[in-house]
């Protein structure tokens, strides 16, 4: 009987401790929720500004976004489109795309582009490429990604949109061609898909 009482008290104590931990965790979450969201929005704004300069828009880029229908974009994996507007006119687009043919898996790419096909900037938002080789697609490692700045894509220069090993104008990395090839090809595919289906207003 004594053993049963001790076990019962221990069980009640554990339940009380678990309740207290849950209550504290919930309280911390609700207290920090707004701050976390503000930090995330600030990070998104900072990243968008790297591919679309501030003088291209007066609207809130983080709020003027939507998820497109994949089939409308030739089944190219474009996950979100944000529209830059100035004086009511769309001046540029920022869109997130995914290259599925990276050396170590998916490479997530953010592209800023004008309606005429001029690429304003490209940034890598996530990847798992080999450190010291494929990670040169990051601005903190090299300036390779800046080679997309102000390059124009159109039907009569598509052959240029490839790494030099494939006859194009973009450098590959020493000992690592797959990664830059995947990025260049996906920027090309997604930009062409966008040009063929440029949205006029948010759907």
From TrEMBL:
Modification sites for FMN phosphoryl threonine: 177
Family: Belongs to the RnfG family.
EC class (word): translocase
Predominant location: membrane
FMN-binding domain span: 102-194
Keyword list, A-Z: Cell inner membrane, Cell membrane, Electron transport, Flavoprotein, FMN, Membrane, Phosphoprotein, Translocase, Transmembrane, Transmembrane helix, Transport
HAMAP family for this protein: RsxG_RnfG
Classification of source organism: Bacteria, Pseudomonadati, Pseudomonadota, Gammaproteobacteria, Pasteurellales
Domain of life of the organism encoding this protein: Bacteria
Name of the protein in question: Ion-translocating oxidoreductase complex subunit G
EC code(s) of this entry: 7.-.-.-
Xref: InterPro entries: FMN-bd (IPR007329), Ion_transpt_RnfG/RsxG (IPR010209)
UniProt cofactor(s): FMN
Encoding gene (name): rnfG
Organism from which the protein derives: Aggregatibacter aphrophilus (Haemophilus aphrophilus)
